[in-house]
Amino acid sequence: MSHIALYRKYRSQTFGELMGQEHVIRTLQNSLKQGKIAHAYLFTGPRGTGKTSTARLLAKALNCEKGPSAEPCNECEICQSITEGHCMDVIEMDAASESGVEQVREKIVQVTDYAPNYCRYKIFIIDEVHDLSAKAFDALLKTIEEPPAHIVFILATTEFHKVPPTIRSRCVKFDFHRATLAELQHRLQFVCQAEGVPAEPGALAAIARLADGGYRDALSLLEQVLLSNEGDLTLSTVVDQLGLIDTELLDDLLLAMAHQELSRVTQLFDQVSRKGRDPRHVVESLLMRIADLTRAVLGVEVGSAIDSSVEAATKAAASRIGLEKLAHLRTGLLESHKHVREVTIPRIWLEQQLLAIALGPSVPASGMAPARAGAAEAPIQAAGPSFSQRSASPPATPRTPAPSPPPAAPAQAQAAPEPLEGVHAVWAATVRELSEKSEIARNKLGLTRVLEETESQIRIGFPRQMDLDWLMERPKQQGMISEVFQRMGGPAQLRLVYELAKAKPKAGDGDTTASAEKPLDGENLRQAAIEVLDGL
User: Fold this and answer.
1) Going by fewer Cβ within 10 Å, which terminus of the chain is more open, N or C?
2) Domains and CATH numbers, the chain
3) pLDDT at 348 over 80
């Protein structure tokens, strides 16, 4: 006999076996008892929560030889044929692979006029219905709107918002919920007992947490562990087989970060890296552990049937870190999680992020874009001389002291510019604030300037087209810039408008009018090249 996957072997065959969806079961059974059968149902919810299983149960309850009944008998020929998947009057269709209009017409529209072969109803189960094309939905609409009395549609989707409103309005909708940790552990324990495998509660809790509320995912993960396990199912086996990070190691790393033990942070991170754990997985594991520790500090029950020793260890680690530190660590790690996919050397980058988070709020973990591996970025304007200035040969000492400057010397070409006023000063402060957080922002915004202030907007000029394109493609960055601009004192009623502008002309350059009407050859070409290079 061929191997049957656990999620298929232990698929619910009665409404009583279906876990975690009592609100759906109660409504369906009441409608079956009262004979109020809808012509179209829409099951929506996360993957692995029982939508397809419920659809098959409803098909059996409607067509059972002893029905329609609130519970299928699973003994008659019709119930058994539906369970085995070869009932001619229960047609299952996967819209992910059969999304075209011709397939909908062939499998559904052209078949609805024919009476069932031997069942009471001809039932169409369309899984992932949101993947149907627009024309396929149009072809299906008329049939769902006015179907024959012997037709019942059961549509299942994980993305309800992608189903057209015209289809939604003609269906009875049921929302399927994610399972709790306790429900998943109870189901895993039932399967382990049925398979004759003793299992530690901590091992089942780890699998349940990784499944993220999906029954099918939980059984698939359990099967993956059982295929390589011999004897009892332990927590260490689950950690090794599923590529998890040991809870004790996560606690030690969080404690080291909370207490600013930087060498310890580096050592523990090296241990995690040697196990081959993906940096994104490391961040997610730390965040999930912080969530558990936070609940322990607040005294919130998570509904997990873990043993008392694991619960005691969680409370002990949480008390040593404290709620304030946990909140700081969570904030820093959440910011890092936004950018972990964008870096080219994720291991080095993540090590820098963990050290920055450990040092506290004074060291930014990340800004508008991921920081490069290494030390924290320096501000745009250094307080002292640059490295090249410090390392250059010192100038010769004058033999006579320099005369004191006159009290009112005339302005020279190299004199410092006058202080900026109004929106110019606000924009300069905005650029400076963003540049301190992100080197990319420094490079893209450093050469920009205010061109004009009108009654409704402020025009910001970019000397380089590539910098302007970079910003225009990122609406979130534009919103962040506007927020900082207003915080720095910019008028909230004025809108920031970005456009291309030439670099400021230098004194003595002569004619600076637009050269669009002049042919770019000879002297004009040379002048245009000088302007572009000066702008860069």
Assistant:
1) N
2) 6-175 (3.40.50.300), 181-242 (1.10.8.60), 247-359 (1.20.272.10), 423-500 (3.30.300.180)
3) yes
